[in-house]
Structure formats: structure tokens, C-alpha cells
Specification:
Structural class: mainly alpha
Shape: elongated
Number of helices: 19
Order of helices and strands: HHHHHHHHHHHHHHHHHHH
Helix content: over 70%
Radius of gyration: 29 Å
Strand content: under 5%
């Protein structure tokens, strides 16, 4: 049947009633399987849910608001009465609430049948996966992880929309909405990395741990992997793979947060970051291949993200942006490049985002901002070489040194290629508007 042939059928007044009945049958089918036997059984099963869904559809079809409310009250009172008089070991109200929801969806089916049907499927799924959901919440999620998830939701859904989307400083650089959006992006990426580390294990556990660590601090990840290489020398190559993965994670994180401020700059940096990432992926794969035996999954315990570190990162972005602005006023564009290269020794992400902020505000040309990011990454990655030798074994240090060399080679060759070929449609030397 073609959509044109189905249109008259879907427009018939019987269609919403069929949807209301279908919703009741779908939810009732799941409830019937859990109804139980004897005195402790639930009073509502397949037929009851089907009739309640149909009741909602008929009440809505008549169109009398009073009738809809009276019928709904009857269903709610009946459900509560059955619960109060029942002799069941399960104190939950899920079945009774599902009965009321079925009535509401039956009413909704009269005006929004597709939405009612979709919601009915979701309700039935929630009821059917009861055991799995309970096990997941009670056994797989820690209290701290739940708090972190709620913190992320509050930051993104509650706080972010309330912030003013305009600059509040004399230089026009500090936008509360943009800065907090960076905080949300940082928390979300760290949370995703943490979840991946919890779910994936086996041979690629250190890779996942390194990738997740790079979202927070690749330098810290390099040091942590180095300590493992000293404790377990046979895992030097695998630990180095984790360190290389942390640099990959750091580059991806950098692209995401720069894109949140200046998508134009991300397009310019696509070739340098892309070349570096490909080379690092290949090298990390070779290091994992050299690992003589499977690696057990590293434990991912603690917090999904560090709120204090995220706020510090946002503060550094704001501070670096203001410092770069002052250097521009003092030394013009070269001042910002010198400043961001030095700042990259401490935090490549914050220093790079300050370049994106200056570009978005029209204070730097695209080429200057892109060069600033490349210089920042160069100084920041160079710090990882002595870190690797100090924290890890000699073999680990050389593995990391090769990885840093490949990253910088890809970074500068990609940047040179983009500059020479005009790889984007953007004006390489013009100011951003």
C-alpha cells in the first residue's frame, strides 16, 4: 500500500481509537506476563489495559473535557483502590501508574496518534526491561557516577540557558555563555571517555584509558602510563600506546572546544590535526601489536570528571584571552603568538581556545590564530618527552619520543600543505568577521 492509499485510512475517525486500543494491548501484554497468580496477583492484565486505553480514546473522541476528567479520575481511583486492597509482596506502584498512563495515552491518541503510539512503545519497553534497568542502576553505576551525570545535566540544561550570551568585559572577550559552553563540552567529553573506559576492556584497555586521560590532561596520562611501564616492563609498548592515545584524545578534545568558539578555525586546522591523528593512530596500533599478551582492563573508578579542573580550565581560557589581548595591544599580533606559545607549556587547550576567542572577536587574522594553535601544541607536546623519560622506563621514553615526533611532523606538514594549497575556501590571511 502506497502512502497515498494509506492517507484516507489514517484520516478515518476509527484510526485514533485503534491506536488507543493498540497502546493498551501493548502495555497490557507486558503486564499480563507479570500479573502473578493467586491472592497476590495484580488485578490489571491484558484486557484491563486494553479497555482503559480504549476508554481514553472514546472519551477524547466525544470531546467533553468533563467526561475526560471524570473517566480519568475513575481509572486513577480504581488503580489506587486495587493497590490498597491487594495482598502483594511488591510495594511498587508501577502497574497502577502504568494503568493511568495508558488512559492518558488513549486520550492523546485522538489528536496525536503517532506520538501516543511511540510513547506506548517506550512505556512497554520500560516495563519489560525492569530487571535489566534495576541491575544496571544498582550494580553497574556508582553513586559518584550518578552525581556526575546529574551535574552534567544541570550544567547543560539548567545553567547554560540562563547565562547572558554577550561579552561582559571592556575588551569584548569574556562571554559567560561561551565560557560555560566550553565547561559543558569539557565535562561531556570527559564523561564519554570515562564511560568508554568502563565498558571496554581486554587488550585495548590501556588505549581506552589513555584516550580518556587525554581529555583531561595528556601530560598527566603520559606520566601515569610511564609509572605503569616501570612497574611492568613487559607492558612498556602498551603503556606507550596509551600515552599516544592520550595525545590523540587531546587533539580531538582541542578540536571540539575550538569548534565551540570558532568553527572557522577548526576548518583551517583540519589538515594539521588530521595528519597528526592518522600518524598517531597507526603508531599506537603498532605499539599494541607489539604487546606480547592481553592486557587486563584498567579499573575506572572515581569521578567521571573533575568539576574543579573544568572550572580552572575555563578560568585559564578567560585569563589567557585577556593576556593575549594585552600582548596584542603591546606587540601587535606577534605578541599573542609569543604569549600563546609560552602558555602552551602549561595548558595547550586553554591557550588554543584563547586564540579561537581572539579570532572570533576579530582581534586576530585566521593565519595568526592557526599558527598560534600550532605553536601551542608544539611547546606542549615537547614537554611530554622529558616527562616520559622521568616517569617511565627508557624504552617507554623512546616510544613516546617517536610518537611526539610523528605528531609534530604531521602538525607542521599538514599546516604547510594547507597554507600552500589553500585547502579551504576561507581567506587564509584575512581577519575573521
Amino acid at each position: 500500500m502506497s502512502p497515498a492509499d494509506a492517507a484516507p485510512l489514517l484520516s478515518r475517525p476509527e484510526w485514533p481509537l485503534l491506536v488507543a486500543l493498540a497502546v493498551g494491548l501493548l502495555i497490557g501484554l507486558e503486564r499480563e506476563r507479570r500479573k502473578g497468580e493467586g491472592a497476590s496477583r495484580s488485578p490489571a492484565g491484558l484486557r484491563t489495559f486494553a479497555l482503559v486505553g480504549l476508554l481514553g480514546g472514546v472519551a477524547a473522541l466525544i470531546g467533553n473535557t468533563g467526561l475526560i476528567l471524570v473517566a480519568g479520575s475513575f481509572v486513577a481511583i480504581g488503580a489506587l483502590t486495587a493497590y490498597a486492597l491487594g495482598d502483594r509482596k511488591d510495594p511498587g506502584l508501577t502497574g497502577e501508574v502504568a494503568l493511568v498512563v495508558t488512559y492518558v495515552l488513549g486520550v492523546l491518541a485522538q489528536t496525536r496518534p503517532a506520538v501516543a503510539l511511540e510513547a506506548g512503545v517506550v512505556v512497554a519497553a520500560l516495563l519489560a526491561f525492569r530487571v535489566q534497568l534495576h541491575r544496571f542502576v544498582r550494580e553497574r553505576i556508582t553513586d559518584q557516577e550518578l552525581l556526575d551525570a546529574l551535574t552534567l545535566a544541570i550544567a547543560a540544561i539548567v545553567i547554560l540557558p540562563l547565562l547572558p550570551n554577550r561579552a561582559i568585559d571592556p575588551f569584548g572577550l569574556l562571554n559567560p555563555f561561551t565560557l560555560w559552553r566550553l565547561a559543558v563540552v569539557a565535562m561531556a567529553l570527559n564523561f564519554l571517555g570515562y564511560v568508554a573506559q568502563r565498558l571496554l576492556g581486554g587488550r585495548y584497555g590501556l588505549l581506552v584509558a589513555g584516550l580518556a586521560g587525554g581529555l583531561v590532561s595528556s601530560t598527566a596520562a603520559v606520566a601515569a602510563m610511564g609509572a605503569r611501564s616501570k612497574d611492568q616492563p613487559d607492558l612498556a609498548a602498551a603503556s606507550a600506546a596509551g600515552a599516544v592515545a592520550s595525545m590523540i584524545g587531546s587533539l580531538g578534545y582541542l578540536a571540539a572546544i575550538i569548534g565551540a568558539v570558532s568553527p572557522r578555525l577548526v576548518v583551517i586546522l583540519a589538515a594539521p590535526l588530521g595528519f597528526s591523528t592518522v600518524l598517531m593512530f597507526i603508531y599506537a596500533g603498532l605499539l599494541v601489536h607489539r604487546t606480547p599478551k592481553p592486557i587486563t582492563k584498567p579499573e575506572a573508578v572515581g569521578r567521571a570528571f573533575n568539576g574543579g579542573a573544568v572550572l580552572l580550565f575555563v578560568a585559564l581560557v578567560g585569563g589567557f584571552s585577556l593576556a593575549s589581548e594585552l600582548l596584542i595591544r603591546w606587540l601587535a599580533a606577534p605578541g599573542a603568538l609569543i604569549g600563546t606559545a609560552v602558555m602552551g607549556l602549561a595548558d595547550a587547550h586553554a591557550a588554543s581556545v584563547s586564540m579561537a576567542t581572539l579570532l572570533a572577536g576579530g582581534r586576530l587574522a585566521v593565519a595568526a590564530a592557526a599558527l598560534g594553535v600550532v605553536l601551542t601544541l608544539t611547546t606542549n607536546m615537547a614537554v611530554k618527552i622529558p616527562t616520559a623519560f622521568i616517569a617511565g622506563s627508557r624504552s617507554y621514553g623512546w616510544h613516546v619520543t617517536i610518537g611526539v615526533g610523528l605528531l609534530l611532523a604531521g602538525l607542521w606538514l599538514g599546516g604547510l600543505l594547507a597554507a600552500l594549497t589553500g585547502a579551504t575556501a576561507l581567506d587564509w590571511v584575512g581577519p575573521a568577521h
